[in-house]
Write a sequence for this structure.
């Protein structure tokens, strides 16, 4: 039975990954979820797995080398999938320090703990041990020529404190692979959407605001382009890379699904109207008129676009979910989980929203 340490498993992608892995492997694997439970971590995301005998939750900070070391001492860990990070670009612009701490130093701590547990006295590594570092396409910077795409060979050119911290963490993983032959992979993925995404990100924020008849804030001219991928497709890609990919390689994961932000918001409005019953009072609230252009994000990257050629060729991964289907599934999930949304938007979220959007 393989043992996984999943960091950041109480967050958006991490919790989807844990669900995906238990659905796929059931009792063949054991997962230890290590999460600090910041504002973005929510154990409600894992309610249906928490009673499994092959699932353990450990509340710990990935920067805490003692706590992380103990997990590796007490368990024969076979795989690490490292999601834990501060992930929101707007927060990184307001408060970069915690991004450097968690994303850079936290990754270093995870690398050191895995290396200490997995390294043989002669400097080789125990058979079958693997570390996967989950990263982002934002490390490649912004594309201006519409014909260009991000490849694994594209030079790094991060612009926000978030992407700079993720780029730094990628370089640490690369350095461990080059220097120690540390058994790892890096995946750089495009924008994810789907269930359990915290409503600070464009898609869940738009769904939630539209259902409450609140403004739908669009930064700048709304023509920035992101490449959107359904989260389950990302989880599948991570697993395939770890099981079938070549060690020491980077794989880009993306959807060839580029859309302007304003287009995304229109699709959400149209899909919400289709999905809401005529008798539902929220239907009357959902309208294009809620769209509000606001001051642009500082240093706002114009376009991201992944060419997922390598992952398709080497491990057979491709984005399975069409955006129109994925967004419908996502909207239905939010309909069915109103209580989840109410919980995550109570308390500190109101203050966050006020700080980020009032007078913008
Ligand atoms: P998220 O913000 O939803 O979740 C992050 C999780 O990490 C939370 O559960 C949080 O509690 C935990 N965490 C934060 N700091 C921690 C610390 N110091 N110690 C332990 N746990 C800590 O993020 P997400 O959107 O699920 O992203 C997960 C990973 O995927 C990140 O590394 C991110 O850079 C990367 N990524 C995200 C996207 C995207 O579109 N969301 C795209 C590509 C890559
Ligand atoms: O209110 C908003 N209005 C708006 O116009 C918000 C929250 C966002 N936007 C724009 C900014 C971006 O161009 O929408 C686009 C998407 O924004 P986010 O959802 O904040 O995502 P992004 O900044 O692209 O980063 C995301 O994808 C890559 C994740 O947050 C990162 O963790 C991931 O690495």
């Amino acid at each position: 039975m393989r043992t996984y340490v999943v960091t950041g498993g109480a967050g958006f992608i991490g919790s989807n990954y844990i669900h995906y892995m238990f659905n796929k492997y059931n009792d063949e694997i054991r997962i230890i979820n290590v999460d600090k439970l910041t504002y973005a971590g929510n154990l409600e995301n894992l309610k249906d797995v928490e009673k499994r005998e092959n699932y353990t939750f450990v509340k710990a900070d990935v920067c805490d080398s003692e706590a992380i070391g103990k997990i590796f001492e007490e368990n024969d860990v076979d795989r690490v999938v490292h999601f834990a990070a501060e992930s929101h670009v707007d927060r990184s612009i307001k408060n970069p320090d915690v991004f450097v701490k968690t994303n850079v130093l936290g990754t270093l701590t995870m690398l050191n703990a895995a290396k200490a547990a997995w390294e043989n006295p002669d400097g080789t590594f125990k058979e079958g041990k693997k570390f996967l570092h989950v990263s982002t396409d934002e490390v490649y910077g912004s594309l201006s020529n519409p014909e260009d795409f991000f490849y694994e060979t594209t030079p790094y050119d991060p612009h926000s404190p978030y992407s700079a911290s993720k780029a730094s963490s990628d370089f640490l993983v690369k350095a461990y692979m080059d220097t120690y032959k540390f058994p790892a992979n890096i995946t750089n993925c495009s924008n994810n959407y789907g269930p359990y995404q915290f409503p600070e990100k464009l898609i869940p924020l738009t769904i939630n605001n539209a259902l409450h008849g609140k403004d739908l804030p669009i930064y700048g001219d709304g023509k920035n382009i992101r490449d959107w991928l359904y989260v389950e497709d990302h989880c599948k890609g991570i697993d395939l890379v770890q099981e079938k990919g070549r060690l020491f390689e980077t794989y880009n994961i993306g959807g060839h699904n580029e859309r302007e932000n304003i287009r995304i918001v229109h699709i959400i409005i149209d899909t919400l109207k289709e999905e809401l019953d005529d008798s539902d009072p929220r239907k009357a609230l959902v309208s294009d008129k809620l769209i509000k252009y606001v001051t642009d994000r500082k240093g706002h990257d114009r376009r991201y676009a992944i060419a997922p050629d390598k992952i398709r060729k080497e491990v057979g991964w491709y984005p399975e979910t069409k955006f129109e289907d994925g967004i419908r599934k996502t909207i239905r999930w939010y309909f069915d989980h109103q209580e989840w949304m109410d919980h995550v938007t109570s308390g500190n979220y109101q203050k966050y929203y006020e700080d980020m959007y009032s007078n913008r």
